[in-house]
Design goal:
The chain has 216 residues and is mostly helical. It has two domains: 77 residues; 133 residues. It is built from five helices and no strands. The longest helix has 73 residues. The protein starts with a helix and ends with a helix.
Amino acid sequence: MQASNGSGRGAIVLTVFGFAFGILSAWGLFYFWGTAPPTKPVDLPAWTQAIGSILAIGIAVYVPWRQRSYQIADTRKQEELDRFKEGELIRIMRVAMFQSVDAFTAHCEFMLRELENKTVDRTKLPATLFLRPHEFDQFRMQLHLIGALGHRVNNLIANQDVIRGLHGEFMRLLYPMPAQFLAMYTSEIEFGAEAGRKLRKDIHDSIYGEDKIGRK
C-alpha cells in the first residue's frame, strides 16, 4: 500500500515538472523565432508568477512525499534492529537458562545421593544449596520469548521455591525426622531432578540446533 502511494506521488511530481518544462520550452521557441502572432506584448511578470506557481505545486507534492519515504525507511531499519536485539536476547536467555537449570538439577541430584545415605551430615551441606540462581529472576519477565521452554522454566522455578522452603525445614528439624516430611521432601527433589534433566536437554538442543541452522 505504501509502495503504491509512493509511486503514485512520484508520477504526479514527474507530470507537474513535465508540464512546466513543456510550457517553458514552447514559450522559449515561440518567443525566440517569432512564429507566434504577437497580439500583445509578453507579460513577463505574469509568466514568472505562473511558472513560480507550477514549481510551488511541484515542491509542495515532492517534499512531503520525500519526507514520508525517509520516514518509512527509518521505521524499517528500526524494526530490523528491534528484531535483531530480540533474537540476541533469546540466545542469551537460552544459554543463561541452561546454566541455571543445570545448576539446579545438580543440586537435586547431589541431595538425592545424600538422602540415600540415611545419615546426612547437615553441617557439611553447601550453604548455597537450592538458592535460586539470579538468572531466574533476571529473565523471568521475558521467559515468554522462548515459548514452551520458558513456560517449563517458570514451572521449574516454582518447584525450586517449594524445595527451598522444605530444605529450610530440613535443616532446622531435629532427628529423628518425621517420615512424612522426609518423604515429601525427597519426592519434591526427585521431581525437580527429573524435570531439570529433561528441560536441560531440551534447552541444550534448542541452542545447538539453532546454531546448526545458522551455519547452513
